[in-house]
Design brief:
Blueprint lengths: L6 E5 L3 H8 L8 E3 L15 E5 L5 H4 L5 E4 L5 H4 L9 E2 L4 H19 L2 H9 L15 E5 L3 H13 L2 E5 L10 E3 L4 H7 L2 E4 L13 H4 L12 E4 L8 H10 L4 E4 L19 E3 L9 H16 L15
Helix pairs in contact: 4-6
This protein binds NADPH dihydro-nicotinamide-adenine-dinucleotide phosphate and oxalic acid.
Oxalic acid binds next to loops.
């Protein structure tokens, strides 16, 4: 084995897929996959790298010499919440495979609500033939919250479909072809929005953010009649009881949710069977393991050549 630091793998993904995807990767260093029973109790001192998703709480005390932590996903809340996290660089997983998947999901959900798929599914079940009046994408304003890697790609793809798109982010932005709002413009942004797309990270500021007060500020009487809430950011940013009440009261006309306050979503949740609601199991943009390992290999090679690491997490901001 060449004299290069091993890499620890602690990914709470499907264990078999991780194992299969590791074959042929990291050719120049040892891989210690903590899902393998033989690594139990293994001394992890002296190891520089770890690739993690929902890591074991004791990983950082077991591996005190880590130089870089690579996140197995784009979101890092499950890493930042570990109390023993050392003050070392954390690299997010930013890759076209993940970005493309997210945009596919977002576009699919926006089109599902625009093209009245729920109403047509009901008609089909009843063997009922009736053409419904159909707004155009350009009649509908999609407000994308979060203009980072995922939000911006979704914006561009929604624009190609023809939606009127506006964006909102923490800091002010100037983006060609996109009207944007910052934190101070929240109410004005919501007041124009027919379909709200949440692509925000979970931070202390965004916890419980999508609540009754926010839903009540979305535009009523737009081309879809009632506003729609779509969230693929993080579930703890949404107040699920408020989503249910807003749907029941007609404040919201529909929702597409990929993330939930508690995952898996409990069987008792009313969201499973509500009208005009799509539930997907945190599957909007799962990481492709092979792409992840290729990405980490390239990052480690660059780091060992003395290059700076891209896609670093800002611990102060929390994302
Ligand atoms: P980025 O870090 O690239 O972008 C985050 C965006 O959110 C930025 O525009 C940032 O604003 C904005 N933002 C953060 N905090 C606030 C706030 N308090 N108020 C307003 N805007 C804020 O992240 P990505 O686009 O790569 O990913 C976004 C999130 O998507 C991830 O953190 C993760 O939670 C989720 N995700 C979900 C997946 C799924 O399968 N459901 C898959 C992958 C990711 P600014 O530009 O001003 O910094
Ligand atoms: C991610 C996710 O953050 O899959 O990448 O949720």
């Amino acid at each position: 084995m060449p004299d290069k630091s091993p890499v620890i793998i602690d990914l709470k993904f499907d264990a078999e897929t991780v194992r299969r995807s590791l074959s042929g990767t990291f050719a120049d260093r040892e891989v210690i996959n903590l899902a393998d029973p033989e690594t139990k109790g293994r001394d992890l001192t002296g190891i520089a790298y770890a690739v993690v998703w929902k890591p074991d709480a004791d990983l950082f005390s077991r591996a005190p010499d880590l130089k870089v932590v690579f996140s197995g996903g784009a979101g890092v809340d499950s890493i930042l919440s570990i109390p023993a996290l050392p003050d070392i660089p954390i690299v997010r997983f930013v890759d076209h495979t993940l970005t493309t998947r997210m945009s596919e999901w977002v576009v699919l959900q926006c089109l599902t609500h625009l093209r009245q798929c729920f109403a047509y599914a009901e008609q089909q079940a009843a063997r009922h033939w009736e053409e419904l009046s159909q707004p155009q994408a350009s009649d509908v304003t999609v407000g994308v919250m979060g203009l980072g890697v995922l939000g911006l790609d979704a914006v561009r793809k929604l624009q190609v479909i023809g939606f009127d798109v506006i964006g909102w982010s923490r800091t002010p932005k100037s983006i060609e072809g996109l009207e944007t709002y910052d934190a101070a413009g929240l109410d004005a942004f919501l007041d124009r929005t027919d379909i709200l797309v949440g692509l925000l990270p979970l931070t202390p500021e965004t916890e419980g953010f999508y609540d009754a007060g926010l839903f009540s500020k979305l535009r009523q009487g737009g081309a879809l009649g009632k506003p729609v809430f779509i969230n693929a950011g993080r579930g703890r940013s949404q107040v699920e009881a408020d989503i249910v009440s807003a749907l029941q009261a007609g404040v919201l006309g529909g929702a597409s949710l990929d993330v939930f306050e508690r995952e898996p979503l409990g069987a008792e949740s009313p969201l499973w069977s509500m009208k005009n609601v799509i539930v997907t199991p945190h599957a909007a943009a799962s990481s492709d393991e092979r792409a992840l390992f290729r990405n980490v290999e390239a990052q480690i090679a660059g780091f060992e050549r003395g290059e700076s690491l891209p896609d670093l997490v800002d611990r102060q901001r929390g994302y």
